[in-house]
Amino acid sequence: MDQKKIMRVHATITGIVQGVAFRYYTQRQATKLGLEGWVRNLPGGSVELEAQGPRQKLESLLSWCEQGPPSASVDEVLAQWKDASEEFHGFVIRQY
User: Fold this and answer.
1) 36 partner at 20 to 30 Å CA-CA among 72, 80, 91, 92?
2) What residues contact residue 87 under an 8 Å CB cut-off, 6+ apart?
3) Residues recognised as catalytic
4) For the chain, which residues make up each domain, given as ranges?
5) What architecture does CATH give domain 6-84?
6) Shortest CA distance to 73 belongs to which of 29, 25, 24, 13?
7) Long-range contacts: 45-48, Cβ < 8 Å, 24+?
């Protein structure tokens, strides 16, 4: 698969991922990688994100999410790949 093709990924991250600045650090990492999309906490204690950009950079973001920030303890990252769209501008933190 072409690693430069623009793709979109939807991911749910479980574990100790709320109250540890996971969203802030995810936004920082995604912005550093030049990705667009969003990240938010979910009511059940997990974090959800939707990101778009070159597949290789998305894979880098998912790899980062497997560790998360220093205070996090990630159990699992479930990712679903999708076709890109034009709805994103920047990478933002969303509320529920």
Assistant:
1) 72
2) none
3) 23, 41
4) 6-84
5) 2-Layer Sandwich (3.30)
6) 13
7) 45/14, 45/17, 45/18, 46/12, 46/13, 46/14, 46/15, 46/17, 46/18, 47/12, 47/13, 47/17, 47/18, 47/22, 47/23, 48/10, 48/11, 48/12, 48/13
Task: Match 């076709």 to its residue by tokens.
Answer: 83
Model confidence, pTM: 0.93
**Dist CA 54 CA 30 (whole Å):** 12
Q: What is the mean pLDDT of each run of 10 residues along the chain (96 residues)?
A: 81 98 98 98 97 97 97 98 91 90
The count of residues in the chain is 96
81 is written with which tokens?
Answer: 């790949």
Single-letter amino acid, residue 38:
W
Cα–Cα distance for residue pair 6/57, rounded to 1 Å: 10
